[in-house]
Structure to design on (853 residues):
C-alpha cells in the first residue's frame, strides 16, 4: 500500500479541523475541531512511521495524545468558567475586550 | 486485497465523519461524529501495524477525552444551536484559506513510498518508551499532573 | 601702576554686580565711578611711558597671540579721565533723577563705564571690541530701560541692530589684519606701519573702510545714524552719558587709535571727510526742524560728531579729540539741563509746550544758555576753540582730493552747518526758556544733586577751551601728530545765528528735514519691509508647511495608522482565530515555496 493516501487523508482531516475551529460558534465544538486537527497529525505521523520503518513516529503520537488529553482537560475547565461568566458558550458572547 | 478493502472503508468513514464534525449543527451529534472518526482512525492504525497506538486511541482518546467533552456538552445543555453558515464573507475567506492549504500541500504529498512492516507491538513500543524516551515519559507525567491541578483550579467556583 | 589700572576697571564692574541687590545701589555705583576717577587722576599725575598691564594670554592661534591686556598711554589717559569724570557726574545726577526707579539702572550704568574703560584701555583690537560690544549692550539695556513700553524696546533693539551692522566692519578689519599682518596689538601694528605699509594696498583700503564703517555705526554717522534719535527713549542721564559724551565718541577714539592705518590710505580719509561733512549738515538741518527737545539735542550730537570726524579725516586726530572733550562738556550739560526741564514740566518733551522757564529754572537756564553759546562757537567758550581748530585743520589738510570734492567746498558746507548750529540752538533756547510758559503745572528746579553736576559741566564748557588748546597737542604728541592750529578770535557770525534762531522760534513744518532727509523711511522701504516679507514667507512656507508639517505629519500618520490598527482589536474570537490561521498559512506557504 502506498503511504501517500494516508497523508492525503490526514491533510483532509486537518483542513476539516481548521474549518471547524474557524466556522463554528460553539466554543466546545472549537475544541472538538482542535482535537480533530491533532488526530489528523497523529495519523500522518503513524503513516510516516510506517513509511520509514521507524517506531519513534508512534512514540511521538503517544506523547501527542498525552498532551491532547491534558489540553482538553484544561480547555474544558476554561470553557466552564466562561459559561459561568457569560451564561453562554457562544464565542461572540465573550467579546468584551474590544477596542 | 482484503486489507485494501477494509482500508478504503475506513478511509471513507474518516472522510465522512470529518465532514460531519464540520457540518452538523447539533453539538452532541458533532462530537459523536468525532468519536466515530477516532475509531476509524484507530482502525487505520491497526492496519498500519501500530497496534498499541490503536488500542490507546480507543481507550484514552475516544474513551476518556471525548467522554469528558460529552459530559461538558450535556452540562451546558445548549438547546439553541446555530445555523449552518455564520457569515458569508468569513465562510468564503476561511474556505479559500483551506483550499489554498490543500492546493499547496497535496501536490507535495504525491511522491511517497510503500508501507513497510514496522513492529508496533506492545513489547517493542514499551522497550522504546522506557529506554530511549523515558525522560519524555516522566515529563509527560508531570504535564498531566499540572493539567489536572490546573483544570481543578480553573474550574472551581469562587468561594470553594 | 598696573594694579591701579586693573583696579580702576574693576571698580565699576564690581559696582555693576553689587547694584541689583541693594537699595544703596545709587550711592555704591556713583562711588565706584568716582573711585575710578580718583585713580585716573593719580595715574594722570604719574604717567610717563605707556604702561602695559597684561592679565593673561587670551587667544593663541598659529603664530598669533592675543593678550588680555590694557595699555595706558596718553590717549587712553585722556579718554579715561573723560569717561570716569563725566560718568561720575552723571551718576551723581542720576541719584536724584532716577529716584524711585529700579536700581538695575545703576547696574547697567556701571557696566557701561566698565565697558567703556575696557574699550579705551584695550591693548589690541579684540580687547577694544569687547568694550565696543559691551557699550552696545549697555546702550540697548538702558534705552529699553522702561521695557514695558514697546516703542522704547524697539528703539533699543534698533540701536543694537544698527550698531551690530557696524560691528561687522570692525570684525572684517580684524580678520584681514590677522590674515595679512598677523597681529592685532596696537603697539605692534604701529611699529609695523612706521616702516611702511606691511600689507597690500587693496587689503589696507578694505581694512580702513571697514574700520570706518564700524565707527559710523557706533558714532551715528551716515549711513548708520538712524538709531540715535530713537535712542532718546531712554532716561535722560543715559542720553547724556552714552549718546553725547562717551559711547558715540568710541568711533573717534578708534580712528585716533588706528591713525597709522588711515594715514597709510589717504583715499579713505577723503571718503571719511565726505561722509562726515554730509552727516554734519544733515544733522544740523534735522535739528532745526524737530519738535522734541531731546530729539533736537540728538540730531545736534549727530551733527557735532560729523565735525569730529572731519577733523580726523584731515589727519588732525588731536583736534578730533579736542572736540570730543569740549562736546562732552557742553552736550552732557545740555542733556542734563534738558532732563531737569522735562522733569520740571512733568514729562513734557515738546518744546511747543515749554517756554518762560528762565525765571522758573534759573540755574538750568544759565547753564543751557552758556552751553548753547559754546556749541554755537562763540568766543571765548570752549566750543569756539575746538571748532576753529577743526576749520584750521581742514584748511591745511593734504588729502588726495578729487573732482567735485575740494577743501573749499567742504569748508563752505561746514561753515553753513556751523551757522545752522547756532540757529537751532538759539531757537531751542528761545522756545524753552524765553517768553511765557505754555504748558501745564508749575515747573521748578530739582535738588542740589541735579544742579551741581550740570553746573560743573557748564563751567568746564565755559573755560576749558583755552587750556585744552595749550595742553592737548603737547600731551598727546607721542601718540598723535600735533598739527598746528591758530587761536580763535572773536567772530560775530555765531551770535548772528543765535539771534536769528531766537527770533525765528517757529519753523515751517518741513517733513523732509524733520525726518532727517528720510533715511529711516528709505531703510524701512528697502531693507526692513523686504526682510519682514521674506521672514513671513519663510514662516508660512518653511516653518509652517515643512517643519511643523513634517512633525504634524509624523504624529498625524502615527495617529491614523494606530486608529486603523486599533480596529484589529475586535474583541471577537473568530477574527483572532482567523488572523492566527492566516499567519500560519503564510508561514507555511513561505516555507513550502521557498
Amino acid at each position: 500500500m502506498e503511504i501517500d493516501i494516508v497523508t492525503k487523508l490526514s491533510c483532509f482531516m486537518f483542513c476539516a479541523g481548521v474549518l471547524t475551529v474557524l466556522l463554528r460558534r460553539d466554543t466546545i465544538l472549537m475544541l472538538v475541531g482542535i482535537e480533530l486537527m491533532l488526530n489528523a497529525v497523529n495519523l500522518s505521523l503513524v503513516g510516516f512511521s510506517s513509511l520509514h520503518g521507524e517506531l519513534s513516529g508512534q512514540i511521538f503520537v503517544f506523547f501527542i495524545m498525552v498532551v491532547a488529553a491534558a489540553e482538553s482537560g484544561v480547555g474544558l475547565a476554561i470553557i466552564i468558567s466562561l459559561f459561568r461568566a457569560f451564561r453562554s458558550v457562544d464565542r461572540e458572547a465573550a467579546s468584551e475586550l474590544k477596542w | 486485497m482484503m486489507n485494501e478493502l477494509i482500508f478504503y472503508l475506513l478511509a471513507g468513514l474518516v472522510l465522512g465523519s470529518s465532514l460531519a464534525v464540520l457540518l452538523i449543527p447539533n453539538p452532541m451529534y458533532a462530537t459523536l461524529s468525532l468519536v466515530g472518526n477516532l475509531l476509524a482512525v484507530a482502525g487505520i492504525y491497526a492496519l498500519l501495524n501500530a497496534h498499541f497506538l490503536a488500542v490507546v486511541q480507543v481507550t484514552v482518546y475516544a474513551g476518556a477525552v471525548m467522554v469528558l467533552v460529552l459530559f461538558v456538552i450535556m452540562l451546558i445543555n445548549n438547546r439553541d444551536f446555530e445555523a449552518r453558515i455564520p457569515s458569508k464573507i468569513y465562510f468564503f475567506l476561511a474556505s479559500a484559506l483551506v483550499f489554498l492549504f490543500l492546493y499547496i500541500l497535496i501536490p507535495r504529498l504525491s511522491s511517497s513510498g510503500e508501507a513497510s512492516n514496522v513492529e508496533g507491538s506492545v513489547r517493542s513500543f514499551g522497550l522504546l518508551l522506557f529506554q530511549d524516551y523515558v525522560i519524555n515519559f516522566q515529563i509527560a507525567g508531570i504535564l498531566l499532573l499540572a493539567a489536572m491541578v490546573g483544570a481543578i483550579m480553573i474550574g472551581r467556583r469562587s468561594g470553594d | 601702576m598696573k594694579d591701579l589700572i586693573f583696579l580702576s576697571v574693576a571698580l565699576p564692574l564690581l559696582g555693576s554686580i553689587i547694584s541689583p541687590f541693594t537699595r544703596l545701589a545709587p550711592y555704591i555705583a556713583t562711588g565706584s565711578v568716582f573711585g575710578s576717577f580718583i585713580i585716573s587722576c593719580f595715574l594722570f599725575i604719574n604717567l610717563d611711558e605707556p604702561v602695559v598691564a597684561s592679565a593673561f594670554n587670551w587667544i593663541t592661534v598659529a603664530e598669533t597671540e592675543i593678550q588680555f591686556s590694557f595699555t595706558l598711554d596718553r590717549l587712553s589717559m585722556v579718554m579715561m579721565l573723560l569717561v570716569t569724570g563725566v560718568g561720575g557726574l552723571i551718576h551723581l545726577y542720576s541719584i536724584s533723577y532716577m529716584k524711585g526707579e529700579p536700581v538695575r539702572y545703576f547696574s547697567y550704568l556701571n557696566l557701561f563705564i566698565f565697558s567703556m574703560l575696557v574699550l579705551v584701555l584695550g591693548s589690541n583690537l579684540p580687547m577694544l571690541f569687547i568694550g565696543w560690544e559691551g557699550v552696545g549692550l549697555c546702550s540697548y539695556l538702558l534705552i529699553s530701560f522702561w521695557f514695558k513700553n514697546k516703542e522704547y524696546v524697539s528703539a533699543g533693539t534698533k540701536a543694537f541692530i544698527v550698531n551690530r551692522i557696524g560691528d561687522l566692519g570692525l570684525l572684517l578689519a580684524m580678520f584681514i589684519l590677522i590674515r595679512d599682518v598677523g597681529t592685532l596689538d596696537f603697539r605692534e601694528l604701529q611699529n609695523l606701519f612706521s616702516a611702511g605699509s606691511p600689507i597690500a594696498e587693496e587689503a589696507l583700503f578694505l581694512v580702513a573702510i571697514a574700520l570706518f564703517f564700524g565707527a559710523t555705526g557706533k558714532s551715528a554717522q551716515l549711513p548708520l545714524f538712524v538709531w540715535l534719535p530713537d535712542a532718546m527713549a531712554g532716561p535722560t542721564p543715559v542720553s547724556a552719558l552714552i549718546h553725547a559724551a562717551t559711547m558715540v565718541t568710541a568711533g573717534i577714539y578708534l580712528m585716533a587709535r588706528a591713525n597709522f592705518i588711515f594715514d597709510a590710505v589717504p583715499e579713505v580719509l577723503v571718503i571719511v571727510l565726505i561722509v562726515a561733512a554730509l552727516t554734519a549738515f544733515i544733522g544740523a538741518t534735522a535739528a532745526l526742524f524737530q519738535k522734541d527737545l531731546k530729539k533736537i539735542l540728538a540730531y545736534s550730537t549727530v551733527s557735532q560728531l560729523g565735525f569730529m570726524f572731519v577733523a580726523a579725516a584731515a589727519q588732525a586726530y588731536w583736534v578730533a579729540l579736542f572736540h570730543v572733550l569740549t562736546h562732552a562738556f557742553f552736550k552732557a550739560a545740555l542733556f542734563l539741563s534738558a532732563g531737569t526741564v522735562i522733569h520740571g514740566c512733568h514729562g513734557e518733551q515738546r518744546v511747543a509746550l515749554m517756554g518762560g522757564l528762565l525765571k522758573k529754572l534759573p540755574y538750568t537756564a544759565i547753564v543751557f544758555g552758556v552751553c548753547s553759546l559754546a556749541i554755537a562757537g562763540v568766543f571765548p567758550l570752549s566750543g569756539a576753540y575746538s571748532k576753529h581748530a577743526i576749520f584750521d585743520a581742514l584748511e591745511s589738510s593734504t588729502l588726495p582730493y578729487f573732482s567735485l570734492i575740494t577743501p573749499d567746498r567742504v569748508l563752505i558746507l561746514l561753515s553753513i552747518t556751523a551757522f545752522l548750529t547756532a540757529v537751532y540752538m538759539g531757537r531751542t533756547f528761545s522756545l524753552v526758556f524765553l517768553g511765557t510758559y505754555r504748558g501745564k503745572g508749575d515747573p521748578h528746579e530739582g535738588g542740589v544733586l541735579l544742579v551741581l553736576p550740570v553746573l560743573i559741566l557748564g563751567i568746564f564748557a565755559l573755560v576749558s577751551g583755552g587750556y585744552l588748546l595749550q595742553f592737548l597737542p603737547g600731551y598727546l604728541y607721542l601718540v598723535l601728530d600735533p598739527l598746528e592750529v591758530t587761536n580763535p578770535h572773536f567772530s560775530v557770525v555765531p551770535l548772528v545765528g543765535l539771534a536769528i534762531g531766537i527770533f525765528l522760534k517757529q519753523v515751517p513744518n518741513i517733513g523732509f528735514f524733520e525726518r532727517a532727509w528720510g533715511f529711516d523711511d528709505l531703510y524701512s522701504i528697502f531693507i526692513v519691509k523686504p526682510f519682514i516679507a521674506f521672514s513671513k514667507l519663510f514662516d508660512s512656507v518653511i516653518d509652517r508647511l515643512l517643519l511643523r508639517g513634517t512633525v504634524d505629519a509624523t504624529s498625524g500618520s502615527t495617529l491614523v495608522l494606530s486608529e486603523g490598527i486599533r480596529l484589529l482589536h475586535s474583541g471577537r474570537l473568530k477574527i483572532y482565530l482567523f488572523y492566527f490561521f492566516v499567519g500560519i498559512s503564510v508561514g507555511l506557504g513561505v516555507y513550502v515555496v521557498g
